[in-house]
């Protein structure tokens, strides 16, 4: 019976192929060998949302290469495996599964995107497996919740914090004016809305956009709505590609309200790359938790830009690069403090107890403890220069800090400690 | 169609199920996870074999049908808290209804017109999730089938649980489908596909037969969609891109578009290709661009080659060759 | 004012769909095959155009280069793939769908090859003329020199092609080869060559569609651009709406589709962007299955 034979053969083949690759378990900590520590990162490297963010792996690797050339961490090199998830949550899940199952990384570093990190949390469930998820590249406030995400560590100030700080600035400087808001139609956006609500801002018009649909054509539609509401100030709380689409189309249609850019999409270099003239950005208001990327008087900016210029010549040192290197720097310190034989558990213990003392370039400290994984807590306010670079208003950094709850927005008194020698963990 | 007696047929499925159970216990997590994906593809491809291979209706939109199944299962779970096993039934029913509607609309179309319509559906339907907030927009909804029951032990991983559920569903649906295909309905479909006018003369209501094909095919695709979302844990428009519909068609052609027994070939190939491509690319030591895109390249090339040289699938090809040999011997 | 803007946006997008539809119709008329890889070829031609623009610096030279590249590639596909296909797929359930599946495979192949050569990141072709809207009575219209260029080019191409088909011997040969290949062969027409020519023309039209689709947006494109999937679907639907057999129908279908979608987007909701083509297609196939211009031939392909 040919058919029966064929079915049986194909069945056996399939089963055999599955079985043939059974692999024995590894004794030491996953991702840690005597010479190497493996970390994994998922983010959009291609596709509409990748604009600007796809420089982050290069930046992190630049720092890790510098670190490895200077002895690594307790004699081990750090290697970073990067997978492109195209900002699609289901791909983030698939790629993260690969990182965990195939590449067997020790920890996940800086995964990008609120929806993506959430999807991974619920399906891959790194918490249940005890896998650290370090310095997630999203400001969604929920990730600081230790009960829900016990192994996840936020780094960016939450969107609620950012919205509250923006709200405070608006109340001080634009009282009585009509405010418009462009936001992403998911948890990223609803976080911002919550923050603005706490700050007591009432919008004349709110325009949501669906993640993935931020093109020039859509932007024309947004502008129509803002014009109709006669908004004086328009807040762009979206990703870089949405912000660029908006500014680019506004330039074409000669629409020029007072722009206020959220930090997620506010990197000037990225925006200018899409053809938006620097003049459009001039005098727009922006926010950043780390020093200005052109401020070579800042010791972190100086060192990191030097390292980056040597590693990736010709690429501009921008906010994405600075944040990427900063996270790499903090990771290296945490791994070093975890001792000669770091494990996932010891790494997280370090973060929980000593997280706040880790050196980092930001102008506010992180707030890690066993009860909270809140990252940075503040922003300074700046304006974009005629060449489109974000510089602090008045020339000095006035950092505002707040929380993700109902706490007030106050000026920060934090004095950032000096950078460890040569930017290496000590 | 099957020359196997029903009892032998059923036993075969039982044996295969047992083999899978054994295999699941022996391999590492990665293989188990891939096993779950293969099971999902088996179900989805089999639905296409019914529709395109037996009933002759080309569909480029089965990804969209899977989406319907996934979303209905998720909504049923999240809004009404019904038990997981029932969510799969909901998925099948909801998608079957959708399939019936689509079939009715498409009954007058054939060939490229049907293909184009289903293509438009594949692109358009998932994006509807952005219109209705209950569907979760681009971010999607979470579909959590929960942890494996404690009775199975501490070490029983989530992935293995997915594998068990998906493999069981695949076994059941494939067995049911092969029975349907060897029944009167299967014969009606093939008659209608070969020569519609002649079939009608023989008393077959081809219009109704085609709609039935769409309905059943959709229901099965819906099941696959719900299972796919189970393995990913979320359901969102991005899980059902155009590429998925194309991959299903590819898998169907590789299996032999009218041969259910070949369905595992297509499913395994689809899951294995990215693996193999990865290994090949690393062996050559090539650039990022090549490694990321090699799987897509291989799948497309495989599809073209198959359609050109093995158009009816390896199983059918083998059978035809055997028949030719037998005929020659008789001469 | 919004009404005018809506119509203008619709006509511009629609004329690009028309170009794509023309490509579909050309292939259909010469070889009775729907070439789903048409958008992939348009994408490849866009990359040719990009290379030309970056190296030569002139859009006006790059466009004909893209067209030429598209034409040549298209002709190659016809010779290498399609002829083999016709020879091999004789019987069985796959016969009717083999060309469809083959062209789909080709689409995927082209996309992955493009990504392997150029990478998956966004590249950019800057628009050749300004995309700033004209100012009329102090109001800025969503109509710019660029959009005018697109309209004019489409019109010129359509006129040229119509003249080719209706008024020249070549056109007559093209039509004859499609409808009655055996008789055409007997009359001495080199049917195979003519068919290849049909594909070449389609490739050129598709190239223009691809390049314009790119610069009409923000100029960015990549192998996975959603714009090209839309171009594929909309171009096909436009061709069907127009009746699949006539070039004029393709143009009308494209403009019709473009305007309808524009109205839906601006007056209803932006989110319906992807489902609108499907709905329009279904409605047209129900109400007037032979398309706006097509003859009452059965929908059996």
Distinctive features:
heterotrimer; A: alpha/beta; Rossmann fold; 2 domains; 5-stranded parallel beta sheet; 16 strands; 39% helix; C: 301 residues; mainly alpha; ABC transporter involved in vitamin B12 uptake, BtuC; 72% helix; disordered C terminus
Question: Please, could you describe this protein's structure?
Answer:
The complex is a heterotrimer of chains A (426), B (331) and C (301). Helix content of chain A is 39%, strand content 16%. Chain A has 426 residues and is an alpha/beta fold. In chain A, strands 6, 7, 8, 9, 10, 13, 14, 15 and 16 form a nine-stranded mixed beta sheet that branches. A five-stranded parallel beta sheet of chain A has the order 2-1-3-4-5, sandwiched between helices. In chain A, strands 11-12 form a two-stranded antiparallel sheet. In chain A, helix 4 (114-123) links the parallel strand 3 and strand 4. Chain B has one domain (6-241). Chain B has helices at 6-26, 29-54, 62-80, 84-106, 111-124, 158-181, 184-194, 196-201, 206-232, 242-255, 263-284, 288-309, 313-330; strands at 141-142, 234-235. In chain C, helix 1 runs antiparallel to helix 10 (247-268) and helix 6 (169-179) crosses helix 8. Chain C starts with a helix and ends in a 14-residue tail after the last helix. Residues 296-301 of chain C have low confidence and may be disordered. At the B-C interface, helix 2, helix 5, helix 10 and helix 12 of B face helix 3, helix 4, helix 9 and helix 11 of C.
């Amino acid at each position: 019976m040919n058919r029966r034979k064929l079915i049986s053969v194909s069945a056996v083949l399939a089963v055999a192929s599955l079985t043939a690759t059974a692999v024995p378990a590894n004794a030491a900590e996953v991702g840690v060998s005597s010479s190497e520590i493996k970390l994994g990162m998922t983010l959009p490297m291609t596709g509409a949302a990748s604009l600007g963010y796809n420089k982050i792996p290069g930046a992190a690797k630049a720092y890790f290469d510098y670190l490895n050339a200077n002895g690594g961490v307790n004699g081990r090199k750090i290697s970073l495996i990067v997978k492109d998830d195209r900002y699609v949550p289901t791909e983030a899940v698939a790629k993260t599964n690969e990182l965990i199952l195939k590449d067997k990384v020790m920890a996940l570093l800086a995964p990008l995107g609120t929806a993506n990190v959430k999807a991974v949390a619920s399906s891959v469930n790194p918490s249940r497996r005890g896998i650290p998820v370090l310095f997630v590249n999203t400001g969604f406030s929920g990730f600081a919740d230790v009960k829900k995400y016990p192994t996840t560590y936020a780094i960016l100030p939450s969107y609620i914090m950012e919205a509250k700080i923006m709200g405070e600035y608006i109340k001080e400087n634009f009282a009585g004016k009509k405010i418009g808001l462009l936001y992403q139609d998911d948890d990223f956006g609803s976080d911002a809305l919550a923050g603005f609500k706490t700050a007591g801002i009432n919008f004349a018009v709110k325009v949501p956009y669906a993640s993935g649909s931020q093109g020039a054509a859509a932007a024309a539609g947004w502008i129509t709505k803002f014009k109709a509401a006669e908004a004086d100030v328009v807040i762009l709380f979206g990703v870089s590609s949405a912000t660029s689409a908006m500014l680019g189309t506004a330039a074409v249609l000669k629409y020029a309200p007072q722009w206020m850019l959220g930090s997620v999409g506010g990197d000037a270099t990225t925006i200018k790359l899409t053809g938006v003239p620097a003049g459009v950005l001039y005098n727009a208001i922006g926010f950043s938790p780390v020093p200005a990327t052109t401020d070579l008087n800042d010791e972190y900016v100086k060192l990191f830009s030097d390292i980056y210029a040597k590693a990736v010549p010709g690429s501009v040192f921008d906010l994405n690069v600075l944040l990427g290197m900063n996270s790499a720097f903090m990771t290296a310190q945490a791994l070093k403090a975890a001792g000669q034989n770091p494990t996932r558990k010891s790494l997280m213990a370090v973060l929980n107890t000593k997280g706040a003392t880790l050196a980092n370039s930001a102008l506010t400290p992180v707030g890690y403890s066993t009860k909270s994984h809140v990252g940075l807590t503040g922003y300074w306010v700046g304006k974009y220069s005629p060449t489109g670079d974000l510089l602090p208003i008045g020339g000095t950094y006035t950092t505002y800090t707040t929380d993700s709850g109902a706490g007030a927005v106050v000026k920060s008194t934090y004095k950032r400690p000096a950078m460890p020698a040569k930017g290496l963990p000590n | 169609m099957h020359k196997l007696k029903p009892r032998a047929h059923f036993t075969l499925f039982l044996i295969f199920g047992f083999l899978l159970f054994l295999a699941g216990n022996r391999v590492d997590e990665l293989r188990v996870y891939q096993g779950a994906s293969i099971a999902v593809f088996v179900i989805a491809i089999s639905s296409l074999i019914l529709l395109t291979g037996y009933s002759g209706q080309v569909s480029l939109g089965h990804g969209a049908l899977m989406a319907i199944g996934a979303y209905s299962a998720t909504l049923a779970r999240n809004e009404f808290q019904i038990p997981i096993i029932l969510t799969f039934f909901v998925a099948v029913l909801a998608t079957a209804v959708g399939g019936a509607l689509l079939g009715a609309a498409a009954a007058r179309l054939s060939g490229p017109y049907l293909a184009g319509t289903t293509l438009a559906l594949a692109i358009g339907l998932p994006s509807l999730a952005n219109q209705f907030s209950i569907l979760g927009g681009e971010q999607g909804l979470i579909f959590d089938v929960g942890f494996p029951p404690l009775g199975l032990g501490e070490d029983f991983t989530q992935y293995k649980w997915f594998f068990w559920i998906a493999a069981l569903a695949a076994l059941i649906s494939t067995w049911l489908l092969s029975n349907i295909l060897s029944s009167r309905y299967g014969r009606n479909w093939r008659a209608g596909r070969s020569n519609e006018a002649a079939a009608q003369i023989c008393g077959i209501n081809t219009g109704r037969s085609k709609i039935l094909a769409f309905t059943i095919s959709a229901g099965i695709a819906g099941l696959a969609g719900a299972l796919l979302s189970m393995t990913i844990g979320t359901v969102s428009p991005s899980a059902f891109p155009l590429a998925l519909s194309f991959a299903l068609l590819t898998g169907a052609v590789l299996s032999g578009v009218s041969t259910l027994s070949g369905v595992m070939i297509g499913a395994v190939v689809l899951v294995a290709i990215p693996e193999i491509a990865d290994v090949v690319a690393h062996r050559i030591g090539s650039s990022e661009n090549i490694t990321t895109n090699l799987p897509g390249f291989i799948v497309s090339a495989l599809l073209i080659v198959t359609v050109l040289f093995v158009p009816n699938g390896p199983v059918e090809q083998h059978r035809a060759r055997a028949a030719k040999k037998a005929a020659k011997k008789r001469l | 004012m919004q009404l005018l803007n809506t119509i203008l946006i619709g006509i511009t997008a629609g004329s690009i769909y028309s170009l794509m539809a023309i490509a579909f119709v050309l292939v259909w008329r010469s070889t009775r095959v729907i070439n789903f890889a048409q958008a992939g070829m348009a994408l490849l031609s866009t990359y040719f155009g990009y290379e030309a623009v970056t190296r030569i610096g002139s859009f006006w030279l790059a466009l004909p280069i893209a067209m030429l590249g598209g034409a040549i590639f298209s002709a190659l596909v016809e010779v290498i793939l399609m002829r083999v296909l016709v020879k091999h797929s004789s019987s069985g359930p796959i016969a009717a769908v083999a060309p469809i599946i083959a062209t789909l495979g080709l689409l995927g192949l082209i996309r992955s090859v493009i990504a392997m050569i150029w990478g998956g990141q966004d590249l950019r072709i800057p628009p050749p003329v300004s995309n700033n809207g004209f100012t009329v009575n102090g109001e800025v219209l969503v109509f710019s020199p660029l959009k005018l260029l697109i309209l004019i080019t489409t019109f010129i191409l359509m006129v040229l092609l119509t003249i080719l088909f209706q008024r020249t011997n070549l056109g007559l040969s093209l039509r004859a080869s499609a409808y009655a290949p055996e008789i055409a062969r007997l009359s001495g027409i080199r049917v195979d060559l003519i068919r290849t020519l049909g594909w070449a023309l389609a490739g050129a039209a598709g190239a223009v569609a691809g390049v314009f689709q790119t610069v009409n947006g923000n100029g960015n494109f990549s192998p996975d651009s959603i714009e090209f999937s839309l171009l594929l679907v909309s171009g096909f639907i436009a061709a069907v709406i127009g009746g699949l057999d006539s070039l004029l129908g393709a143009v009308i279908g494209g403009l019709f589709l473009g305007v309808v979608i524009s109205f839906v987007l601006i007056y209803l909701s932006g989110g319906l962007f992807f489902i609108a083509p499907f709905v329009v297609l279904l409605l047209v196939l129900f109400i007037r299955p032979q398309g706006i211009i097509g003859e009452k031939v059965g929908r059996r392909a």
